Amino acid sequence: MPGASPDTRQGEVGSRDAALLAATVREAGALALSMFRTELREWTKGGSSPVSEADIAVNDLIRDRLQSAVPDYGWLSEESADDPARLERQRVWIIDPIDGTRAYLAGREDWCVSAALVENASPILAAVFAPVSQEFFFATRGAGATLNGAPIRASTGRDLEFVKVAGPKPLIERLALPDGAHILPRIGSLALRLCGVADCRVDVAFAGGQSRDWDLAAADLIVHEADGTLTTLAGEAIVYNRPEVTHGVLVAAGRDRHARIVEHFRNRPAG
Questions:
Q1: How far, CA to CA in Å, does 154 sit from each of 37, 107, 134, 171, 205?
Q2: Which residues contact 42 (CB under 8 A, 6 or more apart)?
Q3: 132: helix, coil or strand?
């Protein structure tokens, strides 16, 4: 988008940004898929987090495409050194090149590319692409969420009977589910776990503590635009692009069911 002034785009979600993000995430997904189930160099960062040359290659591709097009936007990615300059930018790309790296390296299919554009601490554009299944989630603030171009919406209702729940077992146990509820197998990508709420394959999804901005930003908007909600257990919204990018325990569900779950945890604090 050479020649586009940031001032002309302030306060609105530009179609050029949306097209740029969608094309970039699709290209990044294709690159990740081309390296999937091949011999890759891998190592550990931060003591326990796996990373591979595929993560770095995908990160470099996304950064090249996005920052060359809109150099005035900030940048925050799991696989880039954090630049505090992002805190001064109104708009910031928040990227997880491969969300679910452990699944990716194990040859499982539950991984994705996750990318969002955040404005003033809130996501305004989001794309989550699972290349193996070719599932492409996309959302624009105020315009709804789609899966492969078709509108999606979170499940309705407040009941917890027969719901499909995903997340860490201790959190699910605290929900005190009735008989008939279905606990889903672990989903390696947190972004995909949360996006499952947006298209009804999951009714309730939890995120344990220690998730980061890049795990959440894209899925947060997709869930919200699908008439769902993602917050802390106390019902507080997630704030992005702050000096501290780590978040505590979170829950996502359709609006009414989410309200009931937040009420449940307020009345039954951990102890």
A1: 33, 29, 20, 21, 12
A2: 50, 51, 52, 53, 105
A3: coil
Q: Where are the beta strands (DSSP E) in 120-222?
A: 122-130, 135-140, 145-147, 150-151, 164-166, 182-183, 204-207, 211-212
**251 closest CA partner among 270, 267, 234:** 234
Residue 166 half-sphere exposure, CB side, CA atoms within 13 Å? 21
Q: Which two tokens stand for residue 251?
A: 């829950």
40: phi then psi, degrees, rounded to nearest 5? -125, 145
How crowded is residue 203: how many other Cβ atoms within 10 Å of its Cβ?
26
- pTM score, two decimals? 0.94
* Each residue's pLDDT tens digit, 221-246: 999 999 999 999 999 999 999 999 99
Length of the chain: 271
CA atoms within 13 A on the CB side of 167: 26
Q: What is the CA 242 to chain-centroid distance, rounded?
A: 17
- Is the CA virtual torsion 250, 135, 110, 13 positive or negative? negative
C-beta separation of 93 from 113 below 8 A: no
